[in-house]
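User
New here, explain this?
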Amino acid sequence: MWLTGVAQAGGARYYVAVSSPPPPRTVFIGDVHGCLLELEELLQACAYSQSDRVVLVGDLVAKGPDSAGVVRLARERGLLAVRGNHDAHVLGARARGGVRADGRKLKREHQRVLDTLAPEDWAYLEAQPLYRRFPELNVIAVHGGLVPGVALEAQDSNLLLNLRSITPEGAPSKRIDNGVPWASQWKGPETVVFGHDAMRGLQRYPHALGLDSGCVYGGRLNAWILPEGRLVSVPARAQYMSVDD
């Protein structure tokens, strides 16, 4: 059985996973976005068992057909997660009484999440941190990314959720058309597994692995299994949303 200890870093909560003994396998899974059937199929393809430690790299909810089902499955099976930008968006909207930060009406896919999640699902989503460290694997899990050259404790919480690129000037960017993938510049020593960047698809670098292949857009849902380092994926059952939506 494993334990997770909570700590604070720059005002942002994170978890250090302490395993005694360590689980036989840790399975990291990319952005699910409410694609419950694909998540169930991927777990089956990974030969999931209760002894596995499963870590969702954020954006459990929104856009896909069954956000409530995804959160319920994660909660009931004791899956770990990190917070994604869409998870953060709906949590913030709920705290504000159902509106966006600027006071505007929510998009339909986010309103659907507010309408369907049970109180215990919200508690599960709220409990997920911005990143998790797995010292025995030398791995960090985060949704968006980490700015190279910045200490983990000093990383900006907004970029942990939204980072995609490093500009030619060396600045962090949320866009994909303004620089190179941040993961291509990450030199370790820890390997970072992340999501969020569906347009670039599966990203593999010496010290970083991006798992978002846009399942909700008709792509694939990916998993990375440690310690063997094996990648497993399943195709989307449908294209639930257009990339432009």
About this structure: Residues 141 and 193 are 5 Å apart (CA to CA). The first strand starts at residue 2 and ends at 9. The chain has one domain: 2-20+39-228. The radius of gyration is 17 Å.
